[in-house]
Predict the structure.
Amino acid sequence: MNMQNKIKVYWPRGTVYGALLNFKREWNLRAPQMPEAPYKGAPKAPVLFIKTANTFTASGDKIAIPAHVPEVDVGANLAWVFGAEGLVVACVLVNDVSIPHESYYRPPVKFKCVDGFLGVGAKAKSVAEVQTDAVVLTVKVNGQTVQSVNYADTVRASQKLLADISEFMTFQEGDVLLLGSDCLPDGKRPRAKVGDVVEISAPGFESLVNQFAGAAA
Amino acid sequence: MKHARIAWAGAVHEAVESNGELLLTRSPWAGKRLKFDEVVWLPPLAPVEQARTVLALGLNYADHAKELAFKAPEEPLVFVKGEGSLIGHKALTRRPQGVTYMHYECELAVVIGRTAKHVKKENAYDYVGGYTVANDYAIRDYLENWYRPNFRVKNRDTCTPIGPWVVDAKDINDAYGSPMNLSLLTTVNGKVTQSGHTRDMIFDVPTLIEYFSAFMTLQPGDLILTGTPDGVVNCDVGDVIVTSIEGVGDLMNTLGE
């Protein structure tokens, strides 16, 4: 039995890490502010965040937008899944949903760790079948293409990102690394509101589809 | 009851503290007693189904905020840590060569006892399973102002000792009234360098549980590290750091290279 047959619906087992500012477009748009307060310099190490387990939502399931939030950012990512001995074994599509936030000064927990705010899957692909730094994601909202994300445009290519993170932490079996989401030309990410259907797709991957819903009563 | 998780005789075991010894609680060794120095102490946390959420507070004691030249925050300053950063009592934490300022942070750690969603402050203690001690090391050389405190400072392998055990919430409430009535003390090579009191937290345990559970559902075994008071100092390779919280435990750690 090969890897592909063994992987059914993928669900994260370990800690899900994500990389911020890993696309040249967003980096370049932000570069003029980098020397200013509060940042006082461009980031040196990869800027990371965690998507906690309460955020995981399967493809096909709805993601609730909190009542006080008019719309959310769609963060289309290709993610790596780690196996034994820190080796990358699989790739999966994820939607790193965020409450829009302009400042990257403080950790984004209340913007990114909201219940349901990580669309995942549906299936993982063996990393052997994916050329990570050549993947192009397409983001559609209600069937209209709103963004194309090309992993040739990253600040740190995937292996460089992994090497720079591994300098200070070790990925455990089951951990996941989101390789970055790009912004649009205006510096914002695609937005979704209650009722919208967001689809993230890439050649060879089963699409990740989530509809956004209102907050539970 | 104080609950530990240890490695001994080629396997991992659950144990409880009993008259200054560890008492194994499961077969085949149920009833076996061990000295504290006979075992390897692991983080005192049972494995969980999904990734454990580890929340940690920055600047949650007014004196420490002042020490670091920050004004006290108006809402909790929180960051998330990966479970991979946790290690147990009496373990070795790696101090990278060439850094100039690596300091401990003695923190009361709350272990969530049952699923917590939209919890009100008044009921928050019902959701606590127990308490333990965490030492949330930071290496200030690596601080950057992007999602600060950034992961290179706060999510390093071996840099979050936790333990020795989880004390049942009921025991703390019975003995001290609440977890907001405990003194904290850190020694470096036997010399007191940090002392504080949980009553000086800016956001107390019930407030934190209400704040987090309003937008994120917490599960049993999830952790909230509640921040550290004034009195952090640089530590070097070979230093023995003991972070203690009254009624909870004395967590020992040594810096290695």
